[in-house]
Every structure is written in C-alpha cells, then in structure tokens.
C-alpha cells in the first residue's frame, strides 16, 4: 500500500513503520526524513508522504526511565539516531539528529 498524502494525525490507524503514535506521527516522520535527505520542501511535495526510513524506538522515557544513564545505556553506539522529546505541559516536540555511524 503506497501512501501518497499526509494523513490527518487524529486518525486512529496502526501502521508498522510508525515508531510511536503518541509523539511521532506520519507528518513528523515525513518532515524529519526530508530534513535528513535534504529534500527541498515546496508546494509540489509539501503534503506528500516521504517515508524512506524505518525508525526503531530505542528508548521510551515512560517505559525505560528518564535518566541520562538509561539514555546512554540504550542509545550509545547506535548510528544515525533521531531523538524526539515531548515537552511536559504543552504540545512542543524538540529533538535532534546524529548522522554519525
């Protein structure tokens, strides 16, 4: 099944490639993938899904804990990592990308 357009994030669908519907949805996964690949975002491709990667959840704070030690235990030595952090008390999501292998 090929997804051509960004889906409404309120739809309750289960898609294998989504790493976490609580924080990361198809829109965010598409945006981050375009940033990683330096895809120029314009009116022609703004609403199209771009999903060349299969993200794997390494750490979930609510499951694994929020300590720096746990982060390093589960994430150190992993190549090409993306970090998403939801700010407590609002809808803001921050993060980063490490392209090192």
Give a structural overview.
- InterPro entries: TLDc_dom.
- The protein has helices spanning 26-36, 61-64, 68-75; strands at 81-86, 93-98.
- It has 101 residues and is of the alpha+beta class.
- The protein has a two-stranded antiparallel sheet.
- β1 (81-86) and β2 form a beta hairpin.
- The N and C termini lie far apart (31 Å).
Topology of helices and strands:
Blueprint: H1 26-36, H2 61-64, H3 68-75, E1 81-86, E2 93-98
Antiparallel strand pairs: 1-2
Brief synopsis:
With 101 residues, the protein is an alpha+beta fold.
Structural class: alpha+beta
Fraction of helical residues: 10-25%
Given the C-alpha coordinates, what overall shape results?
globular
How many domains is the backbone divided into? 1
Number of strands: 2
Average pLDDT level: 78
Describe the sheet with the most strands.
Answer: 2 strands, antiparallel
Protein name: TLDc domain-containing protein
InterPro entries: TLDc_dom (IPR006571)
Domain TLDc: 22-101
List keywords for this structure.
101 residues; two-stranded antiparallel ribbon; disordered N terminus; 2 strands; alpha+beta
């Amino acid at each position: 099944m090929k997804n051509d357009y960004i889906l409404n994030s309120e739809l309750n669908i289960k898609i294998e490639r989504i790493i976490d519907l609580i924080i990361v949805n198809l829109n965010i996964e598409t945006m981050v993938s375009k940033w990683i690949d330096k895809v120029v975002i314009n009116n022609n491709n703004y609403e199209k899904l771009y999903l060349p990667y299969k993200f794997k959840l390494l750490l979930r704070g609510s499951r694994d804990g929020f300590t720096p030690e746990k982060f390093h235990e589960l994430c150190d030595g992993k190549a090409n990592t993306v970090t998403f952090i939801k700010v407590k008390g609002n809808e803001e999501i921050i993060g980063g990308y490490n392209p090192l292998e």
